[in-house]
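Entry for the shared binder. Reason: the reviewer on the internal report wants the predicted structure included alongside the sequence.
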Amino acid sequence: MAPKFLVIPLMMLAFGASQPAAAALDIGESAPRFNAPAALDGKPFTYSLGDALQKGPVVLYFFPAAFSTGCSMEAHAFAEAMEDFKAAGATVIGVSTDDPETLAKFSSQACQGKFPVASDQTRTISKSFDALMQTRPEYANRISYVIAPNGAVAFYYQSLNPAKHVEKMLAAVKDLQPAAKK
């Protein structure tokens, strides 16, 4: 057994190995448009990235599995920050490879009915955003994108640790605002 002071760095190294080297979509690249089965506060609907972008920037975040500890923490953090995202003119959508029924429950519980989550069971969306884990491709990796209203990637952040995603996405959305609004 490794000494205690090595356990956390070794765990972080092991988690890091499951991440892709870099996001497929770089800053300035066009984000692939998609439609997907989604739920908001338990109610199913079809989410359209194209329609959402007509209203302003979109925070698109991928997460591995509904109801896992980290994913529930991240969803709760996004839910708590929704007023800040709205004030910055942005909407939020979470995407995972979970089935629509599981995500309907997750949308009303962990997301507190404050933003939708979409199902990517076919992994088509996750592949197009390079958001699948390399070692566990049945799961989405934890990566978040800010997509500007023109459809270009404005920012992305990748880390299996859910703690900084909301903070970094909100800062990136605020950076998109015209100077007069800041």
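Summary line for the report: The first strand starts at residue 35 and ends at 40.
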